[in-house]
Amino acid sequence: MRRILIVGNWKMNKTASEAAAFVRDLIKALPASPSVDFGIAPPFTALESVRAALGASAFIQLGAQNMFWEDQGAYTGEISAPMLRDLGCRFVILGHSERRTLFGEQDDAIHKKIRAALKHGLQAILCIGESLAQRERGTTDEVLTGQLQGGLGGFRAEELTTLSIAYEPVWAIGTGRAATVDQAIAAHCTIRRFLSATWTADVADRARILYGGSVTPENVEGLLKSDQIDGALIGGACLRIDSFVKIAAVAQSIGVNR
Ligand SMILES: O=C(CO)COP(=O)(O)O
User: Fold this and answer.
1) Residue nearest to atom 2 of ligand 1 (CA)
2) Which of 8, 84, 165, 214 could covalently link to 89 via disulfide, CB atoms 3.0 to 4.6 Å apart?
3) Residue 100 CA, ligand 1 centroid: distance in Å
4) Which atom of ligand 1 is nearest to 237's Cα?
C-alpha cells in the first residue's frame, strides 16, 4: 500500500527567517514517529534556512516549487536540479497550474524538467488539473490524460518508480471550493488507469496521487479515507501551524491503519 504524503506548497510566502521559525515550531508539534510522509516546499530563498531548521528531522522532506531543466549556464533567474540537490531537496513540484497559467509553462518544458529532476535523483511531483470551463465542457479526463502524456510521454516505466502526481483542479485552488471526494476519486482513477495503460500496472500501483485544491483540516479526512487518494498538496492551510498540525494529525490517524 502507498504511504500517505502530505506536502505544504508555500508558494511565494515566508521569508527565510519566517520559514525557519515556522519549521522549528512545526517539528515540535508533529508526531515523533509519523506513519505518513511530510514535505515542505518553501520559496527558493528559504531552502537553506529550512534545511538548517529541519536538522536531523528526516521525516520532513525538503522540496522546491519549480526548477529549470539545464544543469547550469546563461539562464538568468533560473535554478537547476543540482543546485536543489546541493541544498538538500528531495523533491520538486513541477507543472503547477500557477506556473502554467501565469508563466506560460507548457507540457514540453515540464517534460524536460521532469527528465532533469529524475536524472539528478529528485522526486518529481507532477501537477495536473482541469479548469472550470474544461470541467463544465465534460473534458476533464481528456485534459488530465493529455497533461500526463505531455509531461511523461516517452519515459520508460523504470524511470517512473518515484513519481508522484498531484491532481489539482484549477477551480479548487485557493478558492475555498475543494473538489468533492467523489470528484477527486474519479480523477485519481482516470490518472491511475492511464498510467497502467500507458506504462505498467506497477507504475500505476506505485505512483502516489495527491489531491490539491482548498484542502483544510475539515475536509482532509474525507479525502484521505479513500485508498485512491494517497495524500495532499496543500497551499493556504499549510501556511499556519495550527491548520498544518491538524491536517497532520488526521493524516497520521488514517496512515497508521493503511
Ligand atoms: O495550489 C495548491 C497546492 O499546490 C493548493 O492551494 P490551496 O490549498 O491554497 O487551495
Assistant:
1) 235
2) 84
3) 14
4) 8
CB atoms within 10 A of CB 130: 24
Q: Is the CB of 215 under 6 A from ligand 1?
A: yes
Provide the H-helix boundaries in the chain: 16-29, 47-54, 81-86, 97-103, 107-119, 132-136, 140-152, 181-198, 201-206, 220-224, 241-255
pLDDT in the model for residue 163:
93
pTM for the model stands at: 0.97
Cα 65 to Cα 47: distance, rounded to the nearest angstrom? 11
Count other C-beta atoms under 10 Å from residue 189's C-beta: 13
The annotation status of 236 as a binding-site residue, yes or no, is: yes
Asked if 41 contacts 7 with a C-beta cutoff of 8 angstroms, the reply is yes
d(CA 83, CA 86): 5
Q: Of ligand 1's atoms, which has the minimum distance to the CA of residue 11?
A: 4
User: What is d(CA 164, CA 107) in angstroms, rounded to the nearest whole number?
Assistant: 16
Percent of the chain with pLDDT over 70: 100
Is 129 among the annotated ligand-binding positions?
Answer: no
The verdict on the CB of residue 213 being under 6 Å from ligand 1 is yes
Low-confidence ranges of the chain (pLDDT < 70): none
ipTM: 0.99
Catalytic residues: 96, 168
pLDDT of residue 122: 98
Do 192 and 228 form a contact (C-beta atoms < 8 A)? yes
**Domains of the chain in sequence order:** 5-255 (3.20.20.70)
User: Is residue 9 lining ligand 1, measured as CB closer than 6 Å?
Assistant: yes
Residue type at 232 in one-letter notation: A
Measured CA to CA, the distance from residue 172 to residue 168 in angstroms comes to: 7
